[in-house]
Amino acid sequence: MTHSLKHSVDLECSDNNRPSKLSKIEHSSHIEEEEEEEMNQNPKNGIQRYLFAIEYIGTRFSGSQKQLTCRTVVGALEEAFAKFVGQPVSVSCSSRTDAGVHALSNVCHVDIQRTSKRKPGEVLPPHEPAVVGRAVNHFLQKHDSDLTIIDVRRVPSDFHARFKAQERTYFYRLLSGPEPLSTFEKDRAWHVCEDLNVPAMQEACRVLVGCHDFSSFRAAGCQVVFFSLICVNSNS
């Protein structure tokens, strides 16, 4: 492959073998193994909460949050889960994304009660996480291939994907130069036709490096209890 002649103003992962976001749960949920095993075997009312990570190409999604008249990430997930379990479900995501925004690993949770199809009303033991992932992916991939579940785990009923999240990482990709945007970069980067002064941009961004309190930018009715702190890492 040839190197692009465009200037790339890009924040890339230093490790291509990126771990799933779910790996952090083992350290943040503070659940002892014995308690977790008991929880998995005896969920309340047979309802098991699953935490799952998804990846998607946001080009054909009108954002992540469910909308009545548009195709969204949550809408597609809830439709696939409903086909799997045979009843409506509600999916909650840790991060909201706008239309056209992609995700490498957005984390969500859903509550599922497994019931018998032969004996209506009979509650069965919860599905194994791997079964949930394979089944829902089957319905997701049946018509479209821009949304996939990449990891599934059981969590307690009070674990919330949004409010238990410890960090969120965003990548902003700019490609500058007069040449047309590569076909493989379409909808993956912002193309700026002018050449950018990268050193000047890096110097200006130094004021963002570190932890800062951005709570004044929150909406008046924001549900977040603690101050909003944003950490910006410098790779320069």
Automatic annotation (TrEMBL):
Domain Pseudouridine synthase I TruA alpha/beta: 53-127
A biological process from GO: tRNA pseudouridine synthesis
Region named Disordered: 1-42
Enzyme class of the recorded protein, top EC level: isomerase
Catalytic activity: uridine(38/39/40) in tRNA = pseudouridine(38/39/40) in tRNA
EC number: 5.4.99.12
Single annotated GO MF: tRNA pseudouridine(38-40) synthase activity
Gene3D superfamilies noted in UniProt: Pseudouridine synthase I, catalytic domain, C-terminal subdomain, Pseudouridine synthase I, catalytic domain, N-terminal subdomain
Similarity section: Belongs to the tRNA pseudouridine synthase TruA family.
Listed name of the protein: tRNA pseudouridine synthase
Species annotation: Vigna angularis var. angularis
